[in-house]
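User: Before I run my own analysis I want an independent prediction to cross-check against. Here's the chain; please return only the structure tokens and, at the end, one sentence I can use as a sanity check.
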Amino acid sequence: MGEHGTWFDYLNRFSWWRDVQHWAADKLGRTSGTKMFPSGFTLTHVLITLLVVIFVTWGAIAFYRGTKTADLGVVPPRKLTFRNVFELLAESLYGFVEGAMGESARRFYPLIGALFLFILFANMFALLPGFSAPTDTLKTNVGIALLVFLLTHIYGVKEHGLAYFKHFLGPVPVLIPLMLPIELISHLVRPVSLSLRLMGNMLADHKVVMSFFALVPLVVPLPFLLLGLLVCVIQALVFTSLAMVYIGMAIEHEDH
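Assistant: Structure tokens:
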């Protein structure tokens, strides 16, 4: 779902790659689809996801090595470098997280920062000819959405203990039959909405860009590429903003 032709399609010329694809579709696709709704599992999105992880890791290493210079990274290089880009992203994102989470920003910044960078560059990969976005499929989005879902409740339990689950029951016992189903449904819908929102927006955006590239490959697609870049950034911010909201609600203490 959401995948189009990529450079990895050339691997289909090799019999060993086709064998790997068939094995993966049989073993892994069986667990993510049904007879009525087959998963259409391929390894293309897995390979591109690995490229995104390698790219982000490379940027993180460049950022870290910049802090080990004689000036401890305080003085930026004169020219725009890979390190500068990640420094700018890191500083801007920390201000964003701090504004949303306050004193908890330092605690959750590594998680939110990793989510943002992964989603941002995963979105942007589809703007490169011959690549697709891992985030325009549910295969990737459900994974990161479930990660946020599980960590939200793990952090909630670590902060409040078993008392965390009291907020599922409402303020007074008489409301438990009403509040419990509402709270359960609202929490279970979160990973669904996170996954579908990201997939829908990225799939639509990249389809539009690719359509104009196919019709007129020069000049005309440029405005749509800029619009696509803006959509990539916004969707990464939306996903991480909701993640911060969910985690913040789980760890907040009621004022008495």
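Sanity check: DSSP finds seven helices and no strands in the chain.
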